[in-house]
């Protein structure tokens, strides 16, 4: 299995925020150089690049830089690269990097995700345009005539989930409330002002039952990782292992694949950084991963104590995408690495995590990773 | 929702027969004539038996609301909110969904499990299937 052959050896993050007005290539290079230095490497060591979603089929807001942009930005001598949107979730870019290392095509792969949507909205147009790749425009015939949009999926899946499980808005709201509490301790988070459950319940509806605070917030920023061949890692003590990969399409299929590739069990997970493009998706990931019983997610998170930073299963400890900002799964993986290294400063979880579940995406666009020290 | 100014879908070789189907008031869904599987959105071969003998065949137009959402945001100039977007499960086959609007009922009265029937609203050369209780 490839899981033992590649480690995350370095992490880096750029300045992040609303409408930074910075060249997205500058943000990308900032994150990349930080990750390379963090791994104890120089750009000359990097022989692979992997990114989501790639630049060719995407708008500038959706993709701040492509794989070939990175090659030319840092003058890399590559043996392998990959920049694609049709992957198992956003973190599919990490999965393919591990596969390339396992196959002997590269030694140190620079993986990154740059979003520039916040600035692009002011420079190019509305969200519906900045988020649309060419493929999505092809699919627009099923969406435009009925007046649907990105939030439609969130509303439909939340409604059905509440119907099947008996979960209430008061329960789901804890995903957003706990994220906001965590974001207060993250200087890079977009929304840091306190938010109560009453604030959540009173926020305006976007697509009932989906309210404003169920939706993640666009931002500018770049996150980078170095995935290295295990025997070439400079500082093994700081490296994060990927114990198992789940890359099958579907929440349940992805989770089942991940658990089939390790002896670890859901009960071993002591921290979770789960996709929260819409808050209900976090619950669906928790249940798929077996972190709580099926249809019990709402009751599991009720009151927010279990998933708080000092709870039994700290969740989205940087504020997630709901309050921290939309980094498309890469923010979750970055936070997992920082916490597992004990480098999270003021927001460090009390008991340094040993086993972390990370997930990205939804429905047929999913992947999850099980991280260990 | 008859006052809605809908965006007309492009009529492509893959989907034109679906969008034109409602001209005579009948909903037609891509149907494998070898094994009987209905598929939506349409595709040119059968997902189950891989036969290419797939065409658009009439269905009853009856279905049930599987999930729905009350859209509150104006995404299109000609479609003032609020309106309901729903996944309707067609009577012909479990798991056969059409994403659509629910019309002819107050948005707050739509419910999962509600029985609905198709009707059509014209946009350009297309007939958009929508559903009414």
How would you describe this structure to a colleague?
The complex is a heterodimer of chains A (about 375) and B (about 130). By secondary structure, chain A is of the alpha/beta class. Chain A folds into two domains: about 1-125 and about 220-240, Thiolase/Chalcone synthase (Peroxisomal Thiolase, Chain A, domain 1, 3-Layer(aba) Sandwich); about 150-215 and about 245-370, Peroxisomal Thiolase, Chain A, domain 1 (3-Layer(aba) Sandwich), CATH 3.40.47.10. Chain A contains 14 helices and eleven strands. In chain A, strand 5 and strand 6 form a beta hairpin. Chain B has about 130 residues and is mainly beta. Chain B has one domain: Beta Barrel (OB fold (Dihydrolipoamide Acetyltransferase, E2P)), CATH 2.40.50.840. Chain B has one helix and eight strands. Chain B has one helix spanning about 15-20; strands at about 30, 40, 55-60, 60-70, 85-90, 95-100, 115-125, 125-130. In chain B, strand 1 and strand 2 form a beta hairpin. The model of chain B has no long low-confidence stretch (mean pLDDT about 95). Classes of the chains: A alpha/beta (about 375), B mainly beta (about 130). At the A-B interface, helix 7 and strand 5 of A face strand 4, strand 5, strand 6 and strand 8 of B. Chain A: This is Thiolase family protein. Chain A: InterPro entries: Thiolase, Thiolase-like, Thiolase_C_2.
């Amino acid at each position: 299995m490839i899981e033992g052959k590649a480690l995350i050896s370095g992490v880096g993050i750029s300045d992040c925020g609303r409408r930074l007005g910075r060249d997205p290539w500058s943000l990308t290079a900032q994150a990349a150089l930080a990750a390379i230095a963090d791994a104890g490497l120089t750009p000359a060591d990097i022989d692979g690049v992997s990114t989501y979603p790639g630049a060719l089929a995407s708008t500038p807001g959706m993709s701040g830089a492509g794989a070939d942009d990175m090659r030319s930005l840092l003058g890399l001598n590559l043996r392998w690269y990959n920049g694609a949107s049709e992957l198992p979730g956003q973190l599919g870019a990490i999965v393919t990097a591990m596969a390339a290392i396992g196959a002997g095509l590269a030694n140190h792969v620079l993986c990154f995700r740059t979003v520039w949507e916040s600035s692009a909205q002011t420079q190019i147009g509305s969200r519906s345009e900045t988020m649309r790749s060419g493929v999505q425009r092809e699919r627009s015939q099923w969406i435009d005539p009925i007046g649907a949009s990105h939030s439609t999926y969130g509303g439909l899946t939340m409604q059905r989930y509440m119907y099947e499980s008996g979960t209430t808005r008061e329960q789901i709201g804890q995903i957003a409330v706990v994220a906001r509490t965590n974001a207060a301790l993250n200087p890079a988070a977009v929304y840091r002002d306190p938010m109560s459950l009453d604030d959540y319940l009173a926020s305006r509806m976007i697509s009932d039952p989906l309210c404003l605070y169920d939706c993640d917030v666009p931002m500018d920023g770049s996150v980078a990782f170095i995935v290295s061949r295990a025997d070439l890692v400079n500082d093994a003590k700081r490296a994060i292992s990927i114990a198992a990969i789940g890359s099958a399409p579907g929440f349940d299929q992805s989770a089942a694949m991940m658990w089939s590739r390790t002896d670890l069990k859901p009960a071993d997970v002591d921290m979770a950084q789960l996709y929260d493009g819409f808050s209900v998706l976090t619950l669906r990931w928790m249940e798929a991963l077996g972190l709580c019983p099926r249809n019990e997610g709402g009751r599991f998170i009720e009151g927010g104590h279990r998933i708080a930073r000092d709870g039994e299963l700290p969740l989205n400890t940087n504020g997630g995408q709901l309050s921290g900002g939309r980094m498309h799964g890469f923010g979750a993986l970055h936070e997992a690495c920082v916490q597992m290294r004990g480098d999270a400063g003021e927001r460090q979880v009390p008991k340094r995590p040993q086993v972390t579940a990370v997930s990205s995406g939804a429905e047929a666009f999913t992947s999850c990773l099980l991280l260990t020290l | 929702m008859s006052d809605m100014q809908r965006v007309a879908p492009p009529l492509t070789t893959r989907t034109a027969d679906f969008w034109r189907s409602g001209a005579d008031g009948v909903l037609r869904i891509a149907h494998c004539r070898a094994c009987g599987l209905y598929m939506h959105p349409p595709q040119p071969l059968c997902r189950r038996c891989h036969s290419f003998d797939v065409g658009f065949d009439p269905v009853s137009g009856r279905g049930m609301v599987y999930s729905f959402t009350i859209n509150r945001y104006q995404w299109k100039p000609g479609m003032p909110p609020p309106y309901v977007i729903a996944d309707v499960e067609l009577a012909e086959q479990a798991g056969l969904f059409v994403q659509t609007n629910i019309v002819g009922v107050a948005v707050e009265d739509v419910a999962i499990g509600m029985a609905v029937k198709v009707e059509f609203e014209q946009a350009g050369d297309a007939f958009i299937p929508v559903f009414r209780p």
